[in-house]
Design goal:
Helix content is 84%, strand content 0%. With 213 residues, it is mainly α.
């Protein structure tokens, strides 16, 4: 049976792939990692659906215990493989990590909204869209960026590479899981506080680093 997610993938990939052929090398790479992020979102959606329907796990339990691990693994794999294979500059690989998180979030958001029957959209739907945009989208981007940036630092100390990478992966999965818990609670606004606050902190660190250079 053809799924909605598969149709969305077919709608999204051809124009992006054809556009990539017209771009220069650096822009083409950015678009490629955007596509990889979208494909990771599609693949994780298929796995998550099987997990809930076939394994008999509730959606809430899956969103806390399993889905963060699946999604963070699929997002991180292409950029980590690229990093270890070609050893690009840290700035470059972090930028690509941000793009993968963005592609994942865009496809996931479109997938969720395509399966919701709104009727006549109201302000409640606008609120939900904003919460997805500022909440889930930021969460996906932050998790991938933190993981990849941390691994690039661990590369300087080879003894810390395995343990440091595992610790970072555990951290982003915990962050992802905490976000899912907050979203499903009565105080779902705390999920926005978590992601926007973390994003603001990262921006301050980035700005501080620029000022010190």
């Amino acid at each position: 049976m053809v799924s909605v997610n598969f149709l969305l993938l077919l709608l999204s990939l051809p124009p992006l792939v054809l556009t990539a052929l017209l771009l220069n090398r650096s822009a083409r790479k950015i678009l490629l990692f955007l596509l990889l992020g979208m494909f990771a979102a599609f693949l994780s959606g298929q796995i998550n659906t099987l997990l809930v329907t076939q394994a008999g796990i509730s959606s809430f339990d899956a969103s806390i215990h399993y889905i963060p691990i699946i999604e963070e693994s699929l997002k991180a794999f292409p950029i980590v493989a690229y990093f270890f294979a070609l050893r690009p500059k840290r700035k470059e690989v972090v930028e690509y990590a941000v793009v993968i998180g963005l592609g994942f979030a865009l496809f996931e958001n479109v997938s969720i909204f395509s399966q919701i029957s709104f009727g006549a959209p109201g302000w409640q739907d606008v609120s939900f869209a904003l919460s997805r945009g500022f909440g889930a989208s930021l969460m996906h981007g932050l998790c991938t960026t933190i993981l990849v940036y941390g691994i690039s630092i661990c590369m300087k100390w080879r003894k810390l590479l395995l343990t440091g990478s595992f610790a970072l992966f555990s951290l982003v999965c915990l962050f992802h899981s905490l976000f899912n818990v907050l979203v499903g609670s009565e105080r779902s606004f705390l999920a926005l506080v978590l992601t926007i606050g973390t994003y603001a902190f990262v921006l301050l660190l980035k700005r501080g680093k620029k000022l010190s250079e």
